[in-house]
Amino acid sequence: MGLAVLSGAVSNVNAADSVGEERIFLLDRLDVAHVKTVNKDHVSSAAFALSASPEPVLFAHPPSRVGFGIKVGPDMRLAGEMVLNPVVWERTGDGVVFGVRVKSGGKSTVIMERYIDPKSLEGERRPISFNIDLSRWKGERISLVLETTCGPVGNCENDWAGWVQPALVTG
Question: CA 104, CA 60: separation in Å to the nearest integer?
Answer without folding.
Answer: 23
